[in-house]
Every structure is written in structure tokens, then in C-alpha cells.
Amino acid sequence: MELGLRGKVVAVMASSKGLGKATAMEFAREGAIVFISSRSEEKLRQTAEEIKKESKNDQVYYKSCDMTSEQDITDFFAFVKDEAGRVDVLINNTGGPKAGGFDGVTDEDWYKAFDQNLLSYIRSSRAVLPYMKEQQFGRIINISSSSVKEVLDGLILSNTFRAGMVGFAKTLAREVAGDNIMVNTIGPGKIATDRVAELNQIAADKQNVTVKQVLENTEKQIPRGHMGHPEEFAKIVVFLASSANSYMTGQSLVIDGGLLKAL
């Protein structure tokens, strides 16, 4: 299948590691012009070099960007404009908010999670939509969480703001579909990332067992029988963000190996 991504300008947020990095790698392999971001300039430099080497694509650029900073987001997309002149694909992504139940989070935690996991996606979408509307082509993919389908105990911040993200994305998708702009949300299940490792450690401490035991118990519950790999997740993101996807928009999908029982 021809994905039509060669020469497309792709911005992947929070992409120095994990799902963001894997996604940027897949776009580079498809011949896209890829812009990556994270808070660490040094990690970005290393990641950009790795992506270039493995994908054999030298069109990989980077600039630091804290997704909780409006100015950083503005500066990042100004950099993309200066280098490439437009944005064809936006992959919204950030780290997960603080873990904890209702009694374990403060007003400060709520505000920070809002900035990081909802307002940041709104700001970056606002930055790219003028280009997409002018060229009558655009793809926005919001990387979320499986909590958009089934709430996760001990993650009240994620459950709240991921749901808000879905409402935002669904509404935006309906508003811009006529401009050939597709907006979808993809939630990872148990994918082998630093975030999942962090949550596994919290679970192990709470249950007084080893992280290995937590991992083994989790994998027993996944119909596919194993944790997902970032590359498996990334390939689905790349398809939905390509011109091969010409009709699916406003959807909220979960990539979890069949773990969730929710419809």
C-alpha cells in the first residue's frame, strides 16, 4: 500500500523516546520530513542521529519544546515553518500525568495535568490548522491512553484529561473534515515504554511483589500474550496519519493486544 508520506512534513511532539520516538522513526522510514521535540536538547540530538542512521533519511530536524509552555510550542512551530514552510501531519504526544487517586492529587497537580495533557494538544493543533486548511490536507493524531475506553484505577488525572482530549478531538474532526483534515485519537494499552515501567513499579510497591511478577501477571491478561512494542503502535499511527486514510476521522482507538473488555 502506498501511504503517500514521502516529502510530507511531520511534527512529532515529545519524541526523544518511547512512543514518540518510535512514531518519528516510522515516518522517517516512509521518507517524510520529520521534526521531533522534547524538553532535552541533548536527547533530541541523539535521537535525531539514531533516526537518520536507521531510516537512512537525513531529513530529521529537532528543537526543544516543553509541552506545558505556550511560548515553547509557538517557537517550535515557527522553527518548522522556517525550515519546511508548512505542516502536513501533527502527532500530539506528551508524558502521562502524575499517578494517584482522588485523595493523592492537589490543585497544582490538576492544573499541571490540564496544561500537559489537554491544553498542549489544543495549542499545537491551533498552530498547524492554518497550513492544513490552506493546502486542503492534514492529519492530526492525538496519542492518548487506553483510559479513553476504560478508566484505570489510581490514574484519576489521566482518566479525566484523556476523556477531555477525546471530546476535543471528536469536535474538531467534525469541524475540519470538509478541509480534508482527519483527526483521530489513539490510546496505547500495555506497551513497553518508560511510562508503563513506572506504573509497573508503583503496582509492585503497592502489592509488595516484584516488577517481574507484575509484568508476568499483566501479560497473562493480554490475549496476544505479550506487552506491545512501540514499533507496533507506531505503524498504526503512521497509517492513520497518511493519505491512505481518506475517510476515518473523529475516532478513538485503543492499541492493546485485546486487553480491554470494554466495547
Automatic annotation (TrEMBL):
Listed SUPFAM superfamilies: NAD(P)-binding Rossmann-fold domains (SSF51735)
One Pfam match: adh_short_C2
Domain of life: Bacteria
CDD domains: BKR_like_SDR_like
Homology family: Belongs to the short-chain dehydrogenases/reductases (SDR) family.
Protein name stated in the entry: SDR family oxidoreductase
Organism (species): Metaplanococcus flavidus
